[in-house]
Amino acid sequence: MRIVVTGSTGLIGKALVRSLRADGHEVVRLVRRDPAAADEARWDPREGTVDPAAFEGCTGVVHLAGAGIGDHRWTEAYKREIRESRVRGTTTLATALAALPEPPEVLVSASGIGYYGDTGDRVVDERSPAGEGFLPEVCVAWEAATAPAAAAGVRTVLARNGLVVAAGGGAWGRMFPLFKAGLGGRLGNGRQYWSFISLYDEVAALRHLLTTRTVAGPVNLCAPEALTNREITEAMGRVLRRPTVFSVPEFALRIALGELSQDVLGSQRAVPRALQESGFRFTFPEIDEAVRAALTGPDA
Questions:
Q1: How many structural domains are present in the chain?
Q2: Which of 202, 222, 231 is nearest to 299 (CA)?
Q3: CATH number at residue 214
Q4: Pick from 43, 39, 152: which is nearest to 104 by CA?
């Protein structure tokens, strides 16, 4: 296969590119600077341009680019960047694909389980409605931006990512050093559900979605069973053999993180109904397994 990937320098993107190339597939990475290697092509989401030559002979596209949700405090300016980086980038890509005389078979476009908002202890799957608040609004607009590709006949998959368990980056990557130092603990009351997925299964799921032609629309990428923050804290301590006596009270998180604390304290109990019904099988479905995989994998 020849696969075009955006966001190839991010945690998931790097792992996906490495996995595809290890199996002999050709990968073209879309970059926002002048290309510096033969496997790179230029795109500019802000200007709405992309080099159409990147898609010649392309089988599929995996779109992962977007400003990091937890990289900065959520000022109004950064909230605009989060939204615009996703909506503009997806619009640019979907419009370019729709204009091709021979578009690729599939577009796998990242989204997030933030689509559902704070669901408390209620289980949600791909049939559940969008929630309320900033992240659900972003996800709705983000997913809607894929419409030109879908209208042009490109099989379009909306990969609603859960929290990726990895030591080399993302939210989990920032937690590992604290837990290793014996400073990890629950956040708030610890009763909020976290829908997690190992980095290995995340990459495997994306590759599954590229090749499983019966799948289109939203797909939750998360382990079969979400766990509470308290349960995940206990698992981190158990695997790392470190105490987890510390906790961060809600008021401290709200002071430190501002509006971002809503995402940290919010609860999303998502299940991967569409993914499992399509025949996908998890390698690391349990949290202890996922944490151990993160510690021993190539991104550890």
A1: 1
A2: 202
A3: 3.40.50.720
A4: 152
